Amino acid sequence: MRKEKTLSLDKFFLVSNQPLFQALSNKEKIFVANRSQVLEYNKADTIYRKGQKRSFLYIVISGRVSLFYPRKTPQKKEIAVDVLRKGDYFGIISLLTGRSHSLSARVINDARILRIDERAFKQILNRIPKLAIHFSRVLSRRLKKKYTGRKEIFQSTILSVYYKGDSEYAHYYAVNLASSIKRESGKRAIVINKPKGIACILNNYAGNYHFVIVVLPSSHNEVTRSFLRQSDLCHIISERDKQTRVVKKVPSDSKDIYATLPSDKDEFDKTIRRISRETSGVLVGLVLGSGGAIGLAQIGVLEVLEEENIPIDIIAGVSIGALIGALWACGYKAAEIEKIYAQLNTKLKTLTLIDITFPKRGFLAGRRVRRFLARYLKNKTFYDIKLPIKIVACDIKTRDEVVITSGKLINAVMASIAIPGVFNPHVTKDKRLLVDGGIVNPVPISVLSRAGIKRIIAVNSMPSPEDVVKTATKKQTLLDIIVNSMNSMEYRIAKYACREADVYIHPILRGAAWYEFYRAKEFIKLGKREARKALPKIRSLIKRS
Fold this sequence. Notes:
The protein has about 550 residues and is of the alpha/beta class. Strand 10 and strand 11 form a beta hairpin. The chain contains 19 helices and 22 strands. The radius of gyration is 25 Å and the shape is globular. About 40% of the residues lie in helices and about 20% in strands.
């Protein structure tokens, strides 16, 4: 592919953050971005009407879009078909078939839309064949049925469940998943046992249910192979040990285990709830950003989320946010995390974590910090934790963002908090040098957006350059110069990134410095206050359709 220059960095980042384009190379993303438009719509604006012929692909960047069937008589209400959110796309049927729109599209609240016209769309498909294959599959399953007086399902998802060891357990898993999907999202799901073929499923159930969950025979026969090839999603269950089963999801951008199914009923129900929320697109993600000691305010935010029973399904964390997020994901309550940091309530106690080394790659070796964290994270891996977390680091050689989702939790945290020039980089088994991910993504909202999370609460603890100037002492140490220089750069990146969050919390304590861990109580109190201010927006986010 001939390399193009990026015409708009803004559009490049918007394209990069869409799940639809996640698997593309940077060259391919630039190609798409250069052929896209960003449009702003106000609440209640009509994008197109039923019967119109407009050949565009629309992708929701922010806000919500209603697809509905308009009634011909004014006395009767229009029929809602679906609500599209961040990362969803529409207009594809008209674009690929040349037919007029069968539904109308209207903005529910102020929205930003990425739009690609027909000519540009054809250029993109010619250059990027894997997108053409993807859209052909989408077209085949977005079955449109003539309206018959009931709510029409805009798109049905065929989800196959396969377990070679025990088809009864597969049925148990499927039934619990279907029930949870209905309970968590209100979407309709049906479980089918002993299917005859994919065509039968499409003819009888697609368009009537949002999710058709098919329990495949444990024998690996032709029917099983056909469904594994043609289903939109497959959950493949296997045994990890005598007490635990695991699920792998296909297709998936990761080879990692998708979920662990505990034998304990309560823990099993919690896992099924999270899977159902992800499957039905109602996950709530929490982003915990950089900020050094100022980031301890995030503990206060967590405390409020706990008190108000706000459901959090997945975390993305970087630097101090990775550390706090990892502890929370392990099952520690916010009050327990506060007690952990209370051990550093004086300058002297904070200094006990410092182990100066010959500054070949950093001033601090980090061994004492690792021993401190090992008391709480122990040898836990990403598969042992109660809540999924994505930890962001940076490969200092390539300057690439590295999202860690497997292995030992403590290794991921040590990589994410390794401030360049301050701490020695974390060296991986394959000799990569990983440092603080904040230098490339200080508030990793994009990590969750790319994973298809449509409801995101972000906590940004990065002080502005003005805040840093106000708190700067007359004598700036070399470490102050390094960290404050990084913070200035990270703040600007974070300011841009936070525009994509649904709820944005920015707890900054005036007069505080990055190393003042002994002021934990003040930071946490501020975090609680700012989280409570954001509660109306958080509740609105959780309740919205």
